[in-house]
Amino acid sequence: MPSKPPIVFPQEQQLLATLGERLKLARLRRRLTTTAVAQRAGISRTTLYKAEAGDPGTTLGTAMRILAVLGMSADFDRLAADDRVGRRLQDLALAPRRRARRPAKAGDEQN
After folding, report:
1. Model pTM?
2. Within 13 A of 101's CA, how many CA atoms are on the CB side?
3. Three-state DSSP class for residue 10
4. In order of start, what are the domains of the chain with their CATH numbers?
């Protein structure tokens, strides 16, 4: 039984469609057929068509195999490599906090 495709928002779908178009253009620039790429990647032509169409059900493993066949696997390494938001949040959490002085207790006299 096939699983349901994940819910994808329009902006995310546009990104997937752009990625699919880039994969297709890279394949065409190399003058490779869908049959050749699918066979080398170990996937079906239907799966390749779906990846090139930006189908949200395409797995990361499939995208990696297609990029590898196209000689572009180094591009995969750049995904989420620059986590600016995460670093900023981490830096904010690491900032030293000033502790409030607690009032001295009646029996805590210093000599």
Report:
1. 0.74
2. 3
3. helix
4. 10-92 (1.10.260.40)
Can you give the pLDDT of all 111 residues of the chain as single tens digits? 567 767 889 999 999 999 999 999 999 999 999 999 999 999 999 999 999 999 999 999 999 999 999 999 998 888 888 888 988 888 888 767 677 677 767 665 555
Helix axes 60-69, 10-29, angle to 10 degrees: 20
Measured distance CA(2)–CA(18) in Å, rounded = 25
DSSP result, 40-93: HHTS-HHHHHHHHHT-TT--HHHHHHHHHHTT-HHHHTTTT---HHHHHHHHHH
